[in-house]
Amino acid sequence: MRITCVSGDIRSVRADMVVVNLFEGEKRPGGATAAVDAAIGGGIAAAIRDGDFQGKAGDTLFLRPARSIASPRVLVVGLGKKEKFSPDHARQAALPVVKLARKLKLSSVASVVHGAGAGGVDPRTAARFCALGASLSSFEFDRYKAEKGHRVSRFLFVERDAKVLPAVRAGASHGARLGEAINWGRALVATPPAELRPGDLARLARGIGRGIGAGGRRIRVRALGVPDLVALSAGGILAVAKGSAAPPRLIVAEYRGGRPGAPWTALVGKGVTFDTGGISLKKWEGMEKMKYDMAGGAGMLAAVRAAAALGIRRNLVAVVPAVENMPSGTAYRPGDVLRMMSGKTVEILSTDAEGRLVLADAMTYAVRKYHPAEIVDAATLTGACVVALGSVNMGMMGNDAGMLDRMKSASAASGEKAWELPLHEEYFEQIKSEIGDLKNIGGGEAGTITAGYFLKEFAGETPWVHLDIAGTAWVEKEKRGYAAGPSGVPVRILVEYLSAGPPG
Ligand code: BES
Ligand code: ZN
Ligand code: ZN
Q: Are residues 138 and 186 in the same domain?
């Protein structure tokens, strides 16, 4: 889908459908909505008057007016209450538009920029979020279907005021590029596990090095294999990988967007390409979904891709430990004691708590090799996080108040929700081992926190934030135009975090 912008009157734009909007509770349409309504004979006002349409967020009103404007179809999207409107509402407003356009097999849509006028959001930001929504809702994973879904070929934003057009263009281009990177990551997560093993993930990660990169700044991707990992004593990654016929990789993607010598931000993402639980085998129900256990890794690679496409001025390195967690005669066992890359020893109680083991080594690698100013990690780490926060918020923990504050601001600005859980030192008791330094599970209570605490032991003095995306990385049911499947979390919050500038 190509996203473009023009200035002019939406009534005279040729497209298969035009899109205007309404705030909840507005008695009479205003702006472009009023202009369109007058031209088509008042159907929108009538629907409002009769209570057919109230402008609630996510609601839509579709019209096929007899007195048509340049376009034969009109869609009015509800923006919700004006007082509650935020840029993310503009994104959400764009979602059902593309959904309907695809259902009707339309090839072009022309839309106003939601929220730029009465919504009180600046036009550039509003356009950014609208374009992002349009792009995200155009995602469909139909690689394995004989009958492919319909693709809308053109999405046009129409801005009345020619003076505002440059801002709208810049915003829409930003949103479209971000959406592209996110959709790239979503496709990785959706790919069946037999076709996305560690080596495949590494190969596809190399693809982000090609083609993109603003101002000649490119992404350099490499992948360490078993000999390198043995040389590094990556005991966590090597142990988890032992049960699989597919050798592990440690994928490293560098993007130098900052000035030379500026410190690195390390983005560590869990890349378990399939999590059977290993010898501590998971039950069969829902196991197929464990292909998304690499969503953190895909998210970090997508964030780097987005940063390059957007020309974000930061030095970033994504570090993704890619492994497949399988049960077999060569698998690691409960009772084993691993020596991690950091030198710490870990007693294994469940081979299903594998994410923290591979992340710990990846964090040690990042710290030793890059001396980063900060680390963010993202992982589908614990089922307990799904219990605690559901699919609304990701879990967030960290060792640095400033960094946590900045991540909270990024959460608010991006609309991707994150909620902090405490890492009080009392929780350490739960992961102390009798035989080694740590054990890999903390018992029944506070499973998300004890997993976070485990990682904290490997962050050392480096400021670090951990995002547990187990509950948010996968959308169970299509929602208002957002497809079921990989959600793209946490790329939006990360790009916002990274755009807000370096620490300090
Ligand atoms: N990948 C899972 C976590 C997970 C569970 C993500 C459900 C999404 C949905 C992780 O590797 C795991 O299995 N964690 C265990 C830890 C336990 C053994 C301490 C869990 O959460 O059950
Ligand atoms: Zn597991
Ligand atoms: Zn896992």
A: no
What is the rounded CA–CA span in Å between residue 131 and residue 152?
A: 14
Domain range enclosing 301: 181-499
Alpha carbons 99 and 479: distance in angstroms, whole number:
11
Q: Is residue 169 part of a domain?
A: no
> What are the residues whose beta carbons fall under 8 Å from the beta carbon of 177, sequence distance 6 or more?
306, 309, 310
Alpha helices in 326-427 (DSSP H): 355-370, 383-389, 401-414
Q: Atom 8, ligand 1: which residue's CA is nearest?
A: 470
Please tell me whether residues 431 and 294 are part of one structural domain: yes
Number of H helices, E strands in the chain: 14, 20
Could you read off the pLDDT of 363-422 as tens digits, one per residue? 999 999 999 999 999 999 999 999 999 999 999 999 999 999 999 999 999 999 999 999
Query: What kind and span of H or E run contains 48?
Result: helix 43-49
For this structure, is 417 an active site residue? no
Distance (Å) of CA 122 to CA 86, 113, 171, 495:
11, 10, 10, 19
Is residue 216 domain-shared with residue 139, that is, in the same domain?
A: no
Which ligand 1 atom is at minimum distance from the Cα of 350? 18
Which structure tokens are listed for 39?
């031209």
